[in-house]
TrEMBL record, chain A:
It is a multi-pass membrane protein. This is ABC transmembrane type-1 domain-containing protein. Its main location: membrane. The chain crosses the membrane at residues 106-126, 133-153, 173-194, 201-221, 227-250, 257-279, 285-307, 314-338, 370-388, 428-449, 475-500. Belongs to the binding-protein-dependent transport system permease family. It is found in: Cell membrane. Keywords: Cell membrane, Membrane, Transmembrane, Transmembrane helix, Transport. The keyword Cell membrane applies. Residues 100-493 form the ABC transmembrane type-1 domain. Pfam families: BPD_transp_1. It comes from Promicromonospora umidemergens.
UniProtKB/TrEMBL annotation, chain B:
Residues 592-604 have a biased composition (Gly residues). Residues 574-584 have a biased composition (Basic and acidic residues). This is ABC transporter ATP-binding protein. InterPro entries: AAA+_ATPase, ABC_Ni/Peptide_Import, ABC_transporter-like_ATP-bd, ABC_transporter-like_CS, Oligopep_ABC_C, P-loop_NTPase.
Automatic annotation (TrEMBL), chain C:
Gene3D superfamilies: MetI-like. InterPro entries: BP-dependent_transpt_permease, MetI-like, MetI-like_sf, OppC_N. Residues 126-316 form the ABC transmembrane type-1 domain. This is ABC transporter permease. Keywords: Cell membrane, Membrane, Transmembrane, Transmembrane helix, Transport. It comes from the Bacteria. The keyword Cell membrane applies. It is a multi-pass membrane protein.
Length: 506, 604, 332
């Protein structure tokens, strides 16, 4: 396995090298870096041109320039990185560090969301093949495949952001909106859950009533401006998540696993109660990550203790439940800070930049600020990827469900849930890992565009400005960051592939 | 799953102790091309400890019948009639009841062991899940029971096997695992759907021995679905013959196989080649009339073929093989999967290179020729492949397919080519209207006829036939073989005939070459090799091939067991003596140390 | 057809092939003499069957009609080159503005800030975008098919080059390479742009074709052709590619939709079509700041892109279903 990974890394490094050569030569030949100066009427034109030629080393051969860049990058291994300077003499390394952090945040979030949502949708549509739900998702997928991202992003900016900001100033839903939203929710859920006509009607009616009442209550409490969740809510949601995860993986009949999951939720909430003072005021990222790791370890331990004969399954279930509980806790804290945040920033979703300049909130308010800023630029690349993933998952799942071993599993008396989760799903995931890796590069392309629309000074801007000025250093910095990210993503996909498919393990 | 109409129950079963009973079973499928009536009201019973063979050709509805017993038909199926499994009526069960029945009361052994097991789960996972599901054993207990089950079906080192994945096992071992899964919950009846079709003949004999001991020792009823009359003769107590959804004849094995009454059964049996009967079953084979001085049509000398694999040692598929085919002679190349027989055929066609040795066609070495000379030599070789589904280009009409070799070698004009194609269509007994048809409009047998016509277009001196009839139904195979012998008589081509079916080789080959793991085990005249074999491997192979006559097959089986004993091997059987709680087994002779050694499986 | 290969759930037994398989039994009944052929008298080639299936796909058919209308209107309304169209207004002229330039009967898409007729402008952009998309589709299909077929058939260095090229595009986002190339070719007009975009978009198609060819070259009919001495050229053109046509056509369709999105994105970023030429992407770029004051200037070009790409995708889906009838839709 290690040999396999090392070989992959070696091959990727060679590909990166070749691609960097290609990118460098294409970039320096894409135009004339002195064009603007040639056309200017500045009296010291000649001097400026000479200065720039000197800075970009235009008189050297392209190979020498490339070698210069490459050895600068090679310096990163010994601790003194040199990514060159821009056309205006600014150090690219510093620019890159800023830009990379915001762009990678965006891309990572998009990728994770796209995988989770896309795969889930793909499985649901495969199970409900040729249902209204399937057709709707299929149409939606085609729509997002065909969407010009830059155009849709502008629409999102104009409608979602500005309209929401106007609305949150009041924070009340009109009654007809509530009825509409509740009806929509009811319709969607019955389509997903399926069943006989009678059951569908019951589902739809139940969801409609629940959503409508909740929304009216929220209105009455002015919840949207002063939201709160509370420890009871955390317990309820975590426990529900535990039950759901159990139902999906081990089946509710397996009481040991179910109790293990519920224990995890309860322990999580108790831990929240005790650590709340630490968490709520001014935590650090390190503390949060540390607590998260502890939470996961404790959860898995609970699974191991409860599991008995189904130990492996129980540990998986409690681990997932632990992660979900942690996220619910974070969500609770964030929700509690929302009204303070509104106080600091009355129009919460601004459409420029990855964070509000000169924002002086506390830790959680800063997190909320980054969250609201990342929301819109993430949505579109995510949706496009969701479309791809859901289609691939659907066809892969349908293919798998037609296999002989699925028939064998059914003939043993396994329920549809066990057949799908245990036998079909894992096999269906194998081809998807490859697609995810391929799609990653497309996602970076999408990020360049949304960054442009939403005015982020990220990698996209670095690339665009660099290319416009025929300035290789920032363009190559963009390539370096995205290229390494893509290589890592591929490596992850390869490892996942090997983990999923015993036939290629060595 | 399936909607079963229970409002019209069939007559109450007379034999109350049947473990599986179909009464007036009728299945229709709704398809976009209209309804397909797959099963047309049949009655059938399986009693404990009894093997009922359901026989028929493809499309007869036998697999559909078996799937109804598990309630596992696709949703576009409409099932009428009553199906009883033990005391349960399948149509009356809800989803949970059905799932409870599957595995517990009725289990299934599928045809293809390569695909019947989930590739990403360990053998242990797949064995224990049924036990845990039906509440028989959990955790460590389930693992122990799984070990026991693997041991029962004769898999050596069961503890280690539990942690392995299906791809690490050979085909025969995988089928044993499938059988272990089927008996895990001690079902009353097992449906075995072509359980040995995908296996080599020696492995088939072992699996059949295992199934036989299973019904003897556990008193399980078996519904055996097969198209192979030899398997029927070997296993069945009673036989039911299906034709296009109808049961045309039922009776004991002796009644049906030796005294068939229905026209279709008679025809079906007449179409089965009988090992040991020699030539003349489907037309006479002309004697070889090559003069002593004639060059051999094909001469392989010291042929070695190797496959280079990335990151693995080179695999030697064929090792030092020397075979000669005289003009006008049919040489049968026999062996199990992985023996290299198809590789040799491809090399003789110049499709894969030889690592060393030579391939001479009429005295000219194929491996040394290039360009034009090679092309000229290729005119003198024809080829027929196994799979009728892939041997014809789906984009070309039949006329173009057959004329293609003429076009490639620029022979004749359009008119003469058309005349030649029509002549060949007559020769392979296809109507001339086939000229403008496309391959997908033809049945498997018809396509194989087209393949043969194409091979004969250039009037070759040598024909290489790679399992030309093994993908065909038995009656179709009989017709194709009949036609083949007639054509050979007429065109006098030499032929390298590759087959795994000894009976087919027996009826048309002049000489036989037996291969194992890329080496020649034995070669000689047909009657010597097939009727008095000298080598142990040939003896095993012959002993394992079943014949379609129950009494004779019983003699052959006993002779095979004697041979195995003499060679120091075990007879495959269920080992149950470690489980005293079992309902009194009929015989108890278990306790063997290991399974049978002869599992070459699907390697290569 | 035969039990040996028969391993679908429920068995192939219930599929419509039953009628075909049955004929062997009929042949048997006739005692081995010439067996009658199944089916009607009319014989369908694979192509005809595909066409029949395609026209039954309602979404694809609708998409085809809509796309046809868009193309016809885009090219006939303002004319192509020297040929005049039926639309009376010119995209270069500035007309008197009616009100704030919102859509009216005289100016169905409205007028831009300077009073130009926006319908004529959008039609011109659509023309350019469609020309580029189709040109890119054709170039990348030809290049991809040739390279994929050769790589799949001969393996060797060509295959190695293809796979490395693919690796490169996993590492560099397509948009980034296209932007660099687009900037280089921008001066040479839309044909130059179409050419360079075609040169970078063929890899996915080549991979698909290669995969298809890899499996086809192991098929018995190809082996049989080789055994009889057929030349490699004839095998590729007569036996391999005609059977890979489904993959090629479907991918070609989808590459057109990729191309239109890629081109408009590049033009939006300023690395694609350069003035005086115009495309739907440059229009959006030019007028995106006018969104709050003159939203129609923003809506029309975007909707045109969406319509074209959506239609192309639906046609591709219909073609895929038509060429690959495995996932037959049987309603239950």
């Amino acid at each position: 396995m290690l040999k396999f990974i090392l070989r992959r890394i070696g091959a990727s490094a060679l590909v990166l090298l070749g691609a960097s050569l290609l990118m460098f030569f294409l970039t320096i030949n894409s135009g004339d870096p002195l064009k603007d100066l040639r056309e200017s009427n500045d009296p010291n034109r000649e001097q400026l041109m000479a200065e720039r030629s000197e800075r970009l080393r235009l008189d050297d051969s392209p190979w020498e320039r490339y070698w210069d860049w490459l050895s600068g990058v090679g310096g990163c291994f010994t601790g003194n990185c040199d990514l060159g300077v821009t056309i205006n003499g600014i150090d690219v390394l510093g620019l890159t560090q800023q830009a990379a952090s915001s762009t990678l945040r965006l891309i990572t979030l998009s990728t994770l969301l796209a995988i989770v949502v896309g795969v889930a949708l793909g499985i649901l549509t495969a199970i409900r093949q040729y249902s209204g739900f399937d057709y709707t998702v299929t149409f939606g997928a085609f729509l997002f495949f065909s969407l010009p991202v830059f155009w849709a992003a502008t629409l999102l900016k104009e409608f979602a952001a500005i309209q929401y900001n106007n609305w949150i100033a009041v924070g009340q839903y009109a009654p007809w909106t509530i009825v509409l939203v509740a009806a929509l929710a009811g319709f969607l859920l019955q389509a997903v859950l399926g069943g006989s006509t009678r059951r569908r009607l019951a589902t739809a009616a139940g969801v409609f009533a629940f959503v409508a009442v909740m929304l009216f209550v929220f209105n009455a409490l002015d919840w949207w401006r002063n939201p709160m969740f509370g420890i009871g809510g955390v317990l309820l949601v975590s426990a529900a998540a535990g039950v759901l995860v159990t139902a999906l993986t081990a089946g509710l009949r397996n009481r040991r696993v179910l109790y293990a999951a519920l224990t995890t939720a309860v322990v999580g909430v108790i831990a929240y109660w005790f650590t709340a003072p630490l968490l709520v005021d001014e935590p650090t990222w390190l503390l949060l990550i540390g607590l998260f790791v502890v939470a996961v370890v404790v959860s898995v331990a609970i699974g191991a203790a409860w599991g008995g004969y189904a130990r492996k399954q129980a540990m998986l279930v409690t681990g997932i439940t632990g992660v979900i509980t942690s996220f619910v806790v974070v969500a609770d804290i964030l929700i509690a800070h929302w009204s303070d945040f509104l106080g600091l920033k009355s129009r919460p979703i601004s459409t420029i930049g990855s964070q509000t300049p000169n924002f002086d909130g506390e830790f959680w308010e800063r997190v909320l600020d980054m969250g609201t800023q990342i929301l819109l630029p993430t949505i579109l690349p995510t949706l496009v990827s969701v479309a791809t993933h859901s289609r691939y998952t659907r066809s892969s799942m349908l293919e798998t469900l037609n296999q002989d071993y699925v028939r064998t599993a059914r003939s043993k008396g396994l329920s549809e849930r066990e057949v799908i989760v245990k036998h079909a799903f894992r096999n269906a995931l194998i081809p998807i890992t490859t697609i995810v890796a391929f799609d990653f590069a497309a996602l970076i392309g999408g990020a360049i565009i949304t960054e442009e629309v939403f005015g982020w000074t990220g990698m996209g801007a670095l690339f665009q400005d660099g290319l416009n000025a025929v300035d290789p250093a920032p363009v190559m910095a963009f390539f370096l960051v995205t290229g390494i990210a893509a290589v890592l993503m591929n490596l992850l996909a390869d490892i996942a592939y090997a983990a999923l498919d015993p036939r290629i393990r060595r | 799953m399936t909607t079963l109409d229970i409002s019209a129950p069939g007559p109450v079963s007379a034999a109350g102790d049947a473990v599986l009973a179909f009464e007036g079973l009728d299945v229709t499928f709704k398809t976009e091309f209209g309804d397909v009536h797959a099963v047309k009201g049949i009655d059938l019973e399986v009693r404990p400890g009894e093997v009922v063979a359901l026989v028929g050709e493809s499309g007869s509805g036998k697999s559909v019948t078996s799937m109804t017993a598990l309630g596992l038909l696709p949703r576009n199926a409409r099932v009428r009639g009553t199906i009883r499994v033990g005391d349960k009526v399948v149509g009356g069960l809800d989803g949970r009841g059905l799932r409870n029945m599957r595995g517990n009361d009725i289990a299934m052994v599928f045809q293809e062991p390569m695909t019947a097991l989930n590739p990403v789960l360990t053998i242990g996972d797949q064995l224990t899940e049924g036990l845990q599901l039906h509440g028989l054993a959990y955790g460590q207990k389930a693992t122990e029971r799984a070990t026991e089950l693997l041991d029962m079906v004769g898999i050596p080192e069961p503890e280690r096997r539990l942690k392995q994945y299906p791809h690490e096992l050979s085909g025969g071992q995988r089928q044993r695992v499938v059988i272990a899964m089927a008996i895990a919950c001690d079902p009353k009846v097992i449906i075995a759907d072509e359980p040995t079709t995908a296996l080599d003949v020696t492995v088939q004999a072992d699996i059949l021995d295992l199934l036989r001991s299973l019904k003897d020792k556990l008193d399980t009823g078996i519904l055996l679905i097969t198209h192979n009359m030899g398997v029927v003769a070997d296993m069945a107590d009673r036989v039911a013959v299906m034709l296009k959804g109808d049961l045309v004849e039922t009776g004991t094995a002796d009644q049906v196989l030796n005294h068939p009454r229905h026209e279709y059964t008679k025809r079906l049996l007449a179409a089965v080649p009988h090992l040991g009967s020699g030539p003349g079953q489907f037309g006479d084979v002309a004697p070889v009339r090559a003069a002593a001085g004639d060059l051999p049509a094909l001469e392989l000398s010291s042929l070695v073929i190797e496959y280079h694999r990335l990151g693995k040692p080179t695999f030697r598929a064929v090792d030092d093989v020397s075979v000669s085919v005289a003009q006008g002679e049919i040489v049968g190349l026999v062996g199990e999967s992985g023996s290299g027989k198809s590789t040799i055929a491809k090399c003789a066609l110049g499709l894969i290179p030889a690592a060393s040795g030579s391939v001479s066609i009429l005295g000219r070495d194929l491996t040394r020729l290039r360009g034009k000379e090679l092309k000229t030599l290729r005119k003198r070789i024809g080829v027929v492949f196994q799979d009728p589904a892939s041997s014809l280009n789906p984009r070309l009409p039949i006329g173009d397919v057959i004329a293609e070799p003429l076009v490639v070698h620029k022979e004749g004009d359009d008119k003469s080519r058309r005349a030649r194609v029509l002549e060949l269509l007559d020769a392979v007994e296809l109507p001339r209207s086939a000229y403008n048809r496309y391959p997908h409009e033809l049945s498997g047998g018809q396509r194989q006829r087209v393949s043969i016509a194409r091979a004969l277009t250039l009037d070759p001196e040598l024909l290489v036939a790679d399992e030309p009839t093994s993908a065909l139904d038995v009656s179709v195979q009989a017709n194709v073989l009949k036609m083949f012998t007639a054509l050979q008589e007429r065109y006098k081509f030499a032929c390298l005939f590759v087959s795994h079916d000894l009976a087919v080789i027996d009826l048309l080959a002049h000489r036989v070459v037996v291969l194992q793991n890329g080496r020649i085990v034995e070669q000689g005249a047909r009657e010597d090799v097939l009727h008095s074999p000298r080598e142990e491997y040939t003896q095993r192979l012959l002993a394992a091939a079943p014949v379609p006559e129950p009494l004779e097959q019983r003699r052959r089986r006993e002779a095979r067991h004697a041979l195995l004993a003499q060679l120091g091997d075990e007879v495959a059987e269920l080992r149950v003596d470690e489980r005293p709680e079992r309902p009194a087994p009929r015989q108890n002779e278990g306790g063997n140390a290991s399974g049978l050694g002869g599992f070459t499986g699907g390697a290569g | 057809m035969n039990d040996i290969r028969n391993s679908n759930p429920g068995g192939e037994d219930y599929e419509p092939q039953v009628s075909v398989a049955g004929t062997d039994a009929v042949g048997l009944a006739a005692g081995g003499s010439a067996a009658p052929l199944p089916g009607e008298d009319k014989s369908y080639s694979q192509g005809q069957l595909v066409a029949r299936r395609f026209f039954r796909h309602r979404g694809a058919l609708t998409a085809m009609i809509v796309l046809g209308i868009v193309i016809v209107v885009a090219f006939t309304s303002i004319g192509v080159g020297p040929i005049p169209g039926w639309w009376p207004k010119d995209y270069t002229l500035q007309y008197d503005k009616i009100g704030d330039g919102a859509p009216t009967w005289a100016y169905p898409f409205g007028q831009d800030t300077g009073g130009k007729d926006y319908f004529a402008l959008v039609m011109r952009g659509t023309q350019f975008s469609i020309i580029i998309a189709f040109a890119v589709g054709i170039i990348s299909t030809v290049v991809g098919t040739v390279i994929g077929a050769l790589a799949g058939f001969y393996r060797g260095w060509l295959e190695a080059v293809l796979m490395r090229m693919t690796d490169v595009f996993i590492v560099i986002p397509l948009l980034a390479v296209a932007a660099v190339l687009g900037r280089m070719a921008g001066e040479s007009g839309i044909w130059g742009l179409a050419f360079v975009l075609g040169l970078v978009t063929w890899t996915s198609l080549a991979r698909l074709v290669r995969g298809e060819v890899l499996s086809l070259r192991e098929r018995d009919f190809v082996l049989a052709a080789q055994a009889v001495g057929t030349s490699a050229w004839r095998i590729i053109t007569r036996h391999v590619l005609p059977n890979a046509i489904g993959v090629v056509i479907v991918s070609a369709t989808l590459s057109i939709s990729t191309a239109i999105l890629l081109e408009t994105s590049l033009s939006f970023l300023g690395f694609g079509v350069q003035a005086p030429d115009t495309s739907l992407g440059t229009l959006i770029n030019e007028y995106q700041s006018a969104f709050s004051t003159r939203p129609w200037l923003f809506w029309w070009p975007g909707l045109m892109i969406l319509t074209i790409a959506l239609c192309v995708n639906f046609i591709g889906d219909g073609l895929r279903d038509a060429f690959d009838p495995r996932q037959n839709r049987t309603k239950d």
